[in-house]
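Backbone geometry:

***
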Amino acid sequence: MVTTVSPLRPRVAHLIHADAAGGGPQILLDHLAHTRDRFTLSAIYGGNGRVAAACEVGGIPHHKLPLDRPWKWLAGLPMLVHLLVRDKPDLLVLHGQWGATIGGVAGRLAGVKTIVYLTVWPAFYGATDAYRAARNDCCERLACRLAHRVVTLSAGNYYQYLIRGMVRPGCFVQLSHGIDLARVPTTDDTAAVRRSLGGGPAACHVISVGRLVAQKRVDWLLQSWKRVQAAEPSARLWIVGSGDEETSLKRLTHDLGIESTCSFLGNRPNGITYLAAADIVAMTSLFEAPGCVPLEALACGRPIVASRVDGIMDSVEDGTTGFLVPPGNSERFADRLLELIRNPALRQRMGQASRDAVQQFAMPDVMARFVTVMSQWHAERNRRPESLAP
């Protein structure tokens, strides 16, 4: 694929180690869609998912390399270095810790002028045992040292780097994640989805959207739902997503006796449409990086009941756009769901507050801030090469 490059437009390459499910690829896609008028873009990825498809449709140069598993990196690293030497990007934006680890090494070897680590999912949240704690801490430190600039997408994430001593003066910047409000489904689309799922106008429907993995703690939601079902048997719970814990979660649904009111819908394209089709959004995550679902709930005007954890607290205002509950407190979570189920007027007030609040996360404004800082970094690096040295 031949691309004509203007000398006035910085060349920006985005790298993600796995083009798979989850919010990471969506963030990369948002960058491609909303900065292409300012930068000459390309994408590098492992796997084959939404990023590959969007680049193909949008005519953005893209390259698939063996990056999606660490054991593939011996083959992927020299290929990545060769690609970067050939294409000579002015800025290399690395999405996520694994992408930043191999991408940072490759970028340094290739002599890329400005390497930016976008901390889409900080790995230290997954330090569930001694091995993972040591591995993830080492990789995060390496990623932060290899990058010339590090961008965190939530205040909680920034604090986690700060307390570990990884924040280097002048190198870390905190920005916010955004949402493309054009993605909000129409009323007709929402009604069609609700009808297809058997959602009548009277029953209140609660929805959880996300991967069924340990991080999301959907088991806490199911335990809460047992209490909800006993108090409001007409309410319904939809669970959209799939993952390693799907089988055990379905088993738990059976053990709790909530199968009649809880439906597993599997992966669904355009998950925001399903959020809009429900009345309340539930999110029991143990942690998030930049939470995409809370922003989508705001945009759709749906109140959310969520864990009070990093990555969610930045976008949900407790008591105004939803309720924040201490993680793992299933009884309190159920009580908040019941409060919303029983009070349509409260749902409506919170829904309107959500539509107002989401304007601060509107994608044009968010991406304008990204464009500004990346343009500044590019100019600084060209003017004083030593200014970004670690």
Confidence is low (pLDDT under 50) at residues 1-7. The radius of gyration is 22 Å.
